[in-house]
Amino acid sequence: MVSTKQDELDEIARLILEDNVTPELASQATQLVFGSGNPNADIVFIGEAPGKNEDKLGEPFVGAAGKFLNDLLDMIGLKRQDVYITNIVKYRPPGNRDPENSEKKEFMFYLEKQLEVIQPKLVITLGRHSLNCFLPDLQISRCHGKPMRFNGRIYLPLFHPAAALYNGSMRQTLIDDFNLIPLVLKKIN
């Protein structure tokens, strides 16, 4: 039987559980929030960690930030099922705190495996945590909206959609940066 990309992704999710990654986070979470969308996508969005709604529903970006992400995707003619969405850390940190460096490190192996399976043309990091896992020396405020090639991949760092919910002036920045996605993809193709 030929395994599909989805089968391979399901296997990575199974490995996370089997390897007991971040047991202290796992014990406080409702479930693993692995990722969702199209395993053949040209674009992968990577956030930092699941929040309350994500933990409850088992899917990334389903809260207020997720609704804004959906609007941004819609604005450039894409739907969630056209892209793949995941987080670095796959369990909700307690009290919605930022994921710790040790937690991000523990999950990076599995995130890299996800990216190897999907083979996206463009990896979009959402927020500083995601950016710094791949490009540790960059500041989101300086490099957002600027595509860059690193280790054989093309990254487009963007602010996290939640930033626009807390800071209204970020909304237009995110909209402007999102409008670059089709242009960046066109250049890659």
Description:
By secondary structure, this protein is α/β, with parallel strands linked by helices. The protein has one domain: Uracil-DNA glycosylase-like domain (Uracil-DNA Glycosylase, subunit E). Helix content is 48%, strand content 13%. The protein has 10 helices and 6 strands, in the order ααββααβαβααββααα. A 6-stranded mixed β-sheet has the order 1-3-2-4-6-5, with helices on both faces. A hairpin with a 2-residue loop joins strand 5 and strand 6. Helix 1 runs antiparallel to helix 5. It is globular and about 40 Å long. It starts with a helix and ends with a helix. The mean pLDDT is 95.
Write the layout of secondary structure elements.
Elements: H1 5-18, H2 23-28, E1 36-37, E2 43-47, H3 52-57, H4 64-75, E3 84-87, H5 101-118, E4 122-126, H6 128-134, H7 140-143, E5 148-150, E6 153-158, H8 161-166, H9 169-178, H10 181-188
How do you describe this structure in short?
This protein is an alpha/beta fold and 189 residues long.
